[in-house]
Amino acid sequence: MAYTVPKLTDYSAAALERAAGECIAVCSRESASVRSDADLKAFRDRWMARKNGILTQINDLWLKGAPKEAKREAGIRVNDVKMAVADIIDKAEHIRLELSTAIGDAVDISLPGVRRPIGAEHPVVKTRNEIVSVFERLGYSVAEGPVVETDYYNFEALNFPPNHPARDAQDTPFIAGQQLKPQRERLLLRTHTSPVQIRTMEKMRPPIRIVIPGTVHRNDPPDASHSPMFHQIEGLAVDTNITFGDLKGTLDHAMKALFGSSVKTHFRPSFFPFTEPSAELYVTCFICGGSGKRGTDNAPCRPCKQTGWIEVLGCGMVDPNVFEFVKDNGYDPKKVSGFAFGMGSDLIFLLKYEVDDLQLFFQGDVRFLQQFS
Ligand code: DAH
Known about the structure:
alpha+beta; binds 3,4-dihydroxyphenylalanine
């Protein structure tokens, strides 16, 4: 039964003490059943309300109603009760506050959940995987090598002799303060993935068929089609009797797998120190289909600069001078032959998806990246 303030008939010290003790015990019991903010408010009002709260009633019934001689004692007891009740309510408020902030910090079950988007391949990785898997299906395996490379692997063993003008074409970021080292030991950021051809041939005897994806650096200021850091994929096949026909057939197949079976390929003579003969491979523009024009209004096709052809990579037959550097591992240029190729994989993505700024790949803007997820 709910507690009601008893009227006193006995105002003896003992009776007042008993009544006060009982009242405080009741208040303490009631505070234990406060579960919510609404409970707390009801509890507080029941005891503290000016108008008819229990403390007011006690004041009226026990103090005001006390005979003169008992007033002092009644005053002390009523005061005891007031202090004790204030204390109990204070504690109950404290506990409520702590509980509600603890629960609010942990989980607010009234809020909708946070949706965590599933990540997707970055375009750079996506293209790399696409290209690599085309060659894996042809029996190629994947090799990798260091980004910080020596002059020997990046140039010398690829038949760029010291001071050869072909080095100028690759604006090379060298590590500073190496003037005292022999040139071939000087460190640089590799300018192409070709050094991994040598590193792999040092480790694996022929026959080999490998693709080498990786990051390369050139001292090029960033703009819509250049970046000081970009990605390449290299290829190398060495065996007895590999011919230029194998090179053409392999790359023609790869281009059709990448850009669609209707593309045509076209090889133009070129120069690279590590291949002889060398060529650049062009594919018919997969945007305009080779016509150089787009749409019904015959707008000029930008990716192929209206030529109908797009250059996608450099390639050639491995120069016998390159095999000389790895001759001791089974690469006798009189016995083996091979072909190599290298392409800028960012560029291939750029062309395929008609992205007009290479920088978008490296800025990490999710609005751009999401389009390819
Ligand atoms: N390494 C060359 C470059 O970065 C690309 C290249 C051309 C690689 C011909 C090759 C190749 O393997 O045979 O410009």
